[in-house]
Design brief:
10-stranded antiparallel beta sheet, about 525 residues
């Protein structure tokens, strides 16, 4: 009876109803604990197609965005011989085969040179060339953003200043006031206030060609039109010559203070190209979408109607303004404006994936294991290495500590960025940020791919100098070991000119207990 009812409804209503049902099924499955690690029946581009707004671009480094897709996700190029390899999926509709990347890049480093479009349009992104505001970009390091998605160890795309991707010759992407929608999964912890971390529609010549010639999601802490509320980062619309939170540019929504430091964010923009656009965001790990603006196009001339040119940009502005930083895991662009029901269904699917979930291994130095590092000095056996305001400190952590504090004291073990026989430690709360030393002190910083960073973030393990636990020697200063001193963390020698090199209790201070993680 219900199917007969659907068949009698208009196509648009029928598709919206099916999309809503898909979202409901996913939410119910999550509520009752149905496993979601395997690929879902309907993935984002399946959902949008059912709603009558098919994907014209679908980019992801971590998973398929169609249930039937079984092609390549991205291409890497290794430094040792400039050879390239395509990284595909473990199974159709599934997750990236990161082991293939690890094998191909073993003993050297790789950059990402291409991100494949999973749609039939083949709008693949390659490293962006020079533009009106920036020289040619460079490829992002392929191993900069390890992450767990769907229970699998994969890699996202971590953009630093001077990196970006683009396709100036596309098929099917909206032009000259046509309607479109788009979303990306990004991160609220790897952002800045420079222009412009964008994903979406841009100029075809890498130049600023005027108002309304872009239609892209922007995510960062840059407030182009005051006032903006809170400290961001905000989901904004880069419509060229401005980052818009409303038709007036500035925020008219005092409740929109930004997403805060959410590790995984769904950012969404819809634009009918004529007289209306909308902005939404959500926590990609839980919950639903929030609409921060839905209303008219900017009132300044040139935006109503829009004048999109149909290029696709990722990581920079339309004229290759490339001072921004950001993270990208997946994103799509659609023909036409998706229904709210379809957006909700896509958000439910994203949540079901389990971005940033447990790696499944804890308390050991095996790659992928989640750990905490406890001091063994008699004064401090309840204290752990954690990051606080970007610096590594020693802090007491207990079962009653705040969730954020437990997360800050949890690290994911990775193969050493400079030597795979050693170790690097990725922040649990800040994906893509690693523990590294600078001027002998330890900090949490995003991996930028340089040789210097790789060496500074690599530590080689040995039996604890005190005879218990484990000591970690700096890769590039092998006589210096990870040490706590006055509740800060350094690489310290056994005696030296610095206060933190004091021989007093040195063997105890450099010996650490590798424990189960505080964050589950």
């Amino acid at each position: 009876m219900f199917l007969r009812f659907l068949r009698t409804r208009p196509r648009r209503l029928r598709n919206a109803t099916l999309a809503a049902l898909s979202a409901l099924v996913t939410v119910v499955a999550l509520a009752v604990g149905v496993p979601q690690a395997s690929a879902a029946t309907s993935l984002p581009c399946d959902i949008y197609a059912t709603a009558g707004t098919p994907c014209v671009a679908a980019h992801s480094l971590v998973r398929a965005l169609y249930s039937s897709y079984n092609g390549s996700l991205y291409q890497v190029q290794r430094a040792s011989d400039s050879a390239t390899a395509n990284i595909g999926l473990l199974a159709a509709g599934g997750y990236a085969n990161a082991a293939a990347q690890d094998s191909f890049c073993s003993g050297t480093t790789c950059i990402i040179t291409k991100i494949y479009d999973q749609s039939a349009r083949h709008n693949d992104l390659t490293i962006e060339g020079a533009g009106g505001a920036g020289v040619a970009d460079v490829g992002a390091p392929a191993d900069a953003l390890p992450v767990t998605v769907g229970g699998h160890q994969v890699y996202g795309l971590e953009i630093s200043a001077g990196m970006g991707y683009r396709d100036n010759s596309t098929s099917g992407v909206a032009t000259n006031g046509a309607a479109e929608g788009m979303y990306m999964v990004t991160s609220g912890t790897h952002v800045n206030g420079s222009c412009c971390f964008d994903y979406g529609n841009a100029e075809t010549n890498n130049q600023d060609t005027g108002n309304g010639h872009m239609d892209a999601i922007n995510f960062g802490t840059e407030c182009w039109f005051a006032p903006c509320y809170g400290s961001g980062p905000w989901v904004q619309a880069d419509l060229e010559n401005g980052l818009f939170q409303s038709d007036s540019g500035y925020s008219k929504n005092t409740a929109n203070t930004g997403t805060g430091a959410i590790p995984f964010v769904t950012a969404l923009l819809k634009n009918n190209g004529q007289d209306h656009f909308a902005l939404k965001y959500g926590n990609a790990q839980s919950g639903s979408l929030t609409t921060t603006y839905s209303g008219g196009e900017p009132t300044t001339s040139g935006y109503s109607p829009m004048h999109q040119e149909g290029a696709i940009v990722l990581g920079t502005g339309g004229d290759n303004s490339n001072g921004s930083i950001g993270s990208f895991f997946e994103g799509v662009m659609t023909a036409g404006i998706p229904t709210d029901a379809a957006d909700n269904s896509v958000q439910a699917n994203i949540v079901s994936v389990g971005y940033g979930g447990s790696t499944g291994t804890t308390g050991t130095l095996a790659a992928g294991s989640e750990i905490s590092l406890r001091a063994t000095t008699s004064c401090c056996t309840a204290d752990y290495i954690r990051h606080q305001n970007n610096a590594a400190v020693l802090s007491a952590i207990t079962s009653s500590s705040a969730t954020v504090d437990k997360g800050d004291a949890t690290w994911i073990v990775r193969k050493g960025l400079a030597d795979s026989s050693c170790y690097s430690f990725e922040s649990r709360n800040y994906p893509g940020d690693f523990l590294r030393h600078y001027n002998y002190q330890l900090y949490r910083q995003p991996m930028v791919g340089t040789t210097q960073f790789r060496q500074d973030a690599t530590f080689c393990a040995s039996t604890g100098k005190s005879g218990t636990g484990t000591s970690f020697a700096s890769y590039n200063y092998p006589t210096r070991y990870l040490r706590h001193y006055n509740y800060n963390v350094y690489i310290a020698s056994d005696g030296g000119s610095n206060a933190f090199d004091s021989a007093t209790s040195w063997t105890d201070d450099v010996s650490w207990a590798v424990t189960a993680p505080w964050a589950p």
